[in-house]
Fold each of these.
Amino acid sequence: MAASLSTVFAGLLRGAGGGRLAQGWRRGIFYSHALRCEAAEGEEGEGAAKAEIDPAKMRDKIIPVETSIKYMQSEAYQTTYGSDPVWKKYRRNFRGAFPPTKTRKTCIRKEVISTGNPCPICRDEFLVLDPINTGLLKQFISPHNNGILPTKITNLCQRRHKQLEVAVHKARDIGLLTFDVPFRRYHYPDYYPPFMTADTTTTSTPASSTASDASASTPASPPPSTLASP
């Protein structure tokens, strides 16, 4: 079978279109060889790129929350941020004259910072959003309405903002953060008019009857002439 196929192929090469067939066959071999060479070069380039990643942009280490709390009380934190919140001096980079309505989805991809201007939490690996780290969470809570500040003010990426919301709600459930319970004032006669009118009538009639009974039961004081001695 193999011999018959080889003879048929040789006959085709000797025929009228054999030259074109052979030329295309050689071209396919050369093209596949070029693709293999490009693939090998691409793998070598990716390996070199991975080797050239700046260690400061790596975020593969898990920082404990205790270390973050100690860092916020250290001199290095005071030198970097001072008494201002961590988002106070941050400025976003955006294209055009007006900033976009939403921040980027995330600053870290495949455990590496993928942008040149990460958000205030992603740029400092020692800032950990955790319910225990109340000193950091309070910086993102408004002093006026006790609500979480929006990303338009803090400039956090969407991923970190969701982590912030979860940490704040957990801290409030535990009792580490205080919050105001919303109180609503209602005009109850608008909602329960028959009950309120009945209560007002029942409370008004006994008061008048008791006043009349008290006046009737008390004896009249005698005139002063009868009290005088004869």
Amino acid sequence: MRDTGSSNCILEPTMNTMLTKRHWFLSAIKLWLLASVVQHAQGVMSRDPIFLAEIQNQTVSEGRNVRFACRVDNLGTHKVAWIHYENSAILTVSSHVITRNERITVTRDKHQKTFYLHINDVRETDTGKYMCQINTASAMTIAGYLTVVVPPDIVDQESSGDVIAQEGNDIKLRCRARGSPKPTVTWKREDGQNINVNKSTTVLEYEGEVLRLSKVSRMDMGAYLCIASNGHPPIVSKRILVSVDFPPMLWIPHQLIGSARGKTVVLECFTEAHPTSLNYWTRGDGNMIYDSDKYHIENRIGNPEYKIHMLLTVRYLTEHDFGTYRCVAKNPRGETDGTIKIYDSGPPPTTVLPLTTEVEMFEIINKEVEDPLVVQEPSLNLPAVGPSSACRRLPWRMDLRVLVAAVYLLRDHIF
């Protein structure tokens, strides 16, 4: 019994020990498996690619070169591709160019872990989002935006040329501008005058690609400038000439002019017409007047240029020159005329001797009587005339001029 009891006492601790060791082993296995899983997970995570920096947005002028950089770590066997998002186009994969666009290239800097996308001679169509993408199970992507700045330009083929309209009609002017960012179009008049959009709207400047003018008049005629700008020089403009046609109109300031024979008079007519009118003068009988010694014709261009000042100068009036004169203006839109009458306002002018000093008259008389070329006529013994009181006897020619001079000299003493 003792032996059996001793045996039982020895076996009991042995079984406990075995159970403890087994429990410990199982626990160790669990811990190792857990550690392995954690270690494996960490290893997998550490081998996934990561982006080291964001891609910078860029703004460049058209014609320049641009470069985007994509920095990637832990790339492993994965590939990097560049994609133009707006065009849904794959540009490059790894170090290979896929697109047929010769302006695009790709380079790689292994030391910097960077893939570079190069776009040369950029154009407005290159504007958009450029994505750097890694072909992981769930694609990893970052992107940068390219803005291409294009100075404004006016498209002549889509813009208005010079315009001709009849007075009272409507006009539409168009100025198509392109650029990036989209240009703003402003209208101005070249002469600095206001733009009459309609009867109730008058502005110094008008904004918009289309300018509509309602019921135009001659006051709207002139050059209009459309100016395109987008904040990037140079600013460009286009000049559009607006012509408004209307029939001639006449205004005569003086329709009745009085003058004496021998005088010179000037006749005036003011005309307005577009296209420029043919202007001329006629007599009342319809005979056209031409530039000559008798007549001088002048047309002075006013401001604005559709105004003309017609002038007719009639020199040394005679009885034949009195009567009616007509100023005539014609253009393709119509014709008009006006009349001016010149009447005789007084008797013919009398001949008046020029004013002469007394000393000059003395010298004239003495020269006449002493002229050796004068044929000697029977003479009288008269005192010589002179400014001094001294007298001398000289032959006196009986000449009409001498008599007239003598009368002129003595008139103050007689009357």
Amino acid sequence: MRARQPDPASHFCKCYPTKLQSSVASLDCVLVCVLWVWKMRRSALRKTGQPNSTASVNSSAADLFRSASSKSSTKELERIDNMFYSYADGSSNMIDPEGIETLCSDLEVDHTDVRILMLAWKMKAEKQGYFTLEEWRKGLKALRADTVNKLKKALPELEKEVRRPLNFVDFYSYAFRYCLTEEKQKSIDIESICELLNIVLGSEYPGQVESFVEYLKTQNDYKVINMDQWMGFYRFCNEISFAGLENYDPELAWPLILDNFVEWVREKRI
């Protein structure tokens, strides 16, 4: 009578408990384990001639990989949550403006740095100056950042992601919505818009932004800016040669404020 073959996976777990039981074991170690189990079981099954050996081996290996991966994801989420609570206000259970300032200090960036606004975009944060736990989880999981150091290192890549044309249009639109602090608010005061323009577009279109901000601060016709005007200025930056303005055509349905701005720029040159 053939002696019962020991289970290779069981033998491996006994010999190397830390590799399988540690919830933070690297996936490389897990893959080594999976390959070891697969090879040992394939060898054993060839000797016994049992049917469906391939399915059995593949199933065992997949189960082992999924288990280790699940444990790793759980630990990652725990660290992300711990980060959140280190900045969150205990009474509101949210990261408030004070918590964001502390976060900025730890990241060694100014609270007006555009990358903080990009981080809010990545989280899809709804309320200016506040992050909920769910928003925090969404953003940091996407960035694969479960420590402050990892988040700091992720910021340059986040900026590259946002700067892609299609993403930037969404980000630019989000920046306006994020600054709507009151219910049913649809416009933003001129002072805030000037600050926002410098943060969001100042580095990419410095000439256009500087000139438009100067115009906004000197004109008396507009007290607020709406979304259509906000998006129109981004289109202006992308399509109109500056500072020549030769290809600006007021007949192409630009917002009136941009017609007035172009007229103001041309008058300054006379």
